[in-house]
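Submission sheet (multi-component)
Chains listed below:
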Amino acid sequence: MASEEESTVKEPLDLIRLSLDERIYVKLRSDRELRGKLHAYDQHLNMILGDVEEIITSVEIDDETYEEIVRTTRRTVPFLFVRGDGVILVSPPLRTA
Amino acid sequence: MNGGGGGSGSGGGGSGSVKTPTDFLKLIRGRPVVVKLNSGVDYRGILACLDGYMNIAMEQTEEYVNGQLKNKYGDAFIRGNNVLYISTSKRTLADGA
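Outcome: structure written.
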């Protein structure tokens, strides 16, 4: 019984497959985030995304006040190939409840 | 047989059956875990599944940066190369000890 259960246990990549053709949120290295529709992916997490918004976050610290100035840069790209080695996290889009 | 306590074993008694990292990975599915990334970011949630590359799928995930809760994800997939460690935890929920 235990061995049968193990053959049906899904890998994390199988769970990504459930998000195909859905909008997803991707966290990348270099403080970047993507939101777009997942068209394809592979085991390296190379991904094809459609209708993508990219958000680049940068934090500056004021020398005098030491306050953090958080800046975000946004751009939209209709079709994007993402190289997998830059991917940190993949998730369904954050729902701002 | 390991006793019924599903939490962290008292002392090392319960860990006698875990011989290899692979055994550990099979053991911890479904448990609350702490995943620390190379970048220092912390993710706490319930481990849904993982694979030999340390790719991780988690549920009810919370993201902690510098000890501060930054984001919550319903489901999260984390690419294995970013993972520094996976640790089990007694999940400390905010609403009760």
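Remark: DSSP finds one helix and five strands in chain B.
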